[in-house]
Amino acid sequence: MTLNVFFNPFLYTIKFYNLMKYRYCGKSGLQMPVVSLGLWHNFGDADDFGVATDIIVSAFDLGICHFDLANNYGPAPGSAETNFGKILRKELASHRDEMLITSKAGHEMWPGVYGDGSSRKNLMASINQSLKRTGLDYFDIFYSHRYDGVTPVEETMQALIDIVRQGKALYVGISKYPVHLQQKCYDILKEAKVPCLVSQYRYSMYDRKIESGNLECAASNGSGMVAFSPLAQGLLTDRYLNGIPEHSRAARATGFLQKEQVSDARVEASRKLNEIAQHRGQTLAQMALAWVLKDERMTSVIVGASSVRQLNDNIKCIENLEFSSDELSLIDGILKDPALSF
Questions:
Q1: With 80 as the cut, is the pLDDT of residue 246 above it?
Q2: Domain with 133 in it: what CATH number?
Q3: 76 prior amide bond cis, ω within 30
Q4: I need a labelling partner for 84 at 20 to 30 A (CA). Which of 251, 323, 332, 333 fits?
């Protein structure tokens, strides 16, 4: 007798979702996974499409339902959105309503005076282009990627308000705004009854600037907080514990992590932090992610991945998000060195 076993994709997905942890985003009814997948690197036309597909599908199976894009992600700029759209249509089209897909605009994207900045002209053109590249009808969240130093925030926030009212995004967010303008953004959006759902800032053990105001400002205004670069571009992993490997990101002539940033002080600090992580039964990367998430005001951390294995390793941070007072004291003693801060 032959036993026919039918595969149920719904049950398969739920099985893995039970491994992920979720937090409500600020004062809203929207939940995010505490670990989200960012497509800043490794998903452009210069990267392996098959590997990118495996990472995105595996992330979803592991309960990562939040995928973070921006219009300029690549290379080439825009190609991460295009590739994500292809993967979504081929592999995950029936799961769109189980996914939180976000994008942003504000950094240089195309030639000419309208391809950069925070103007209404740029944001409106950008979201239309991003929707076309991804093949989506709407984004769950659309961000102003930065304050450009020129455009009045009233103009930028009104563009975000209109984007929601036009049905092109369900929610809006801001990223990297200085704290005094951050509050102004919240006030404008709240007045229009399109509150800022989430704020995205760089935050890691080596970059704690948001602790000086941004984090508290977001929390007091009911905005969730999402951290990008929680591993300090790889410095808070075991990759640089012995200097700069030949084919690492810091070894390249161009990129966001430069050789001089892999300083002796940071290498030594990472080694000491790694010892604490080992005592916790974690890798340095897992502990660094858990450290960011120890504050309940943090909704999620955005991780990148160049392989499914790396993604799986990072997700294991959720197995231990608690720190003892002794551990925190030891970590603070290491991080107090001002030479470590970006």
A1: no
A2: 3.20.20.100
A3: yes
A4: 251
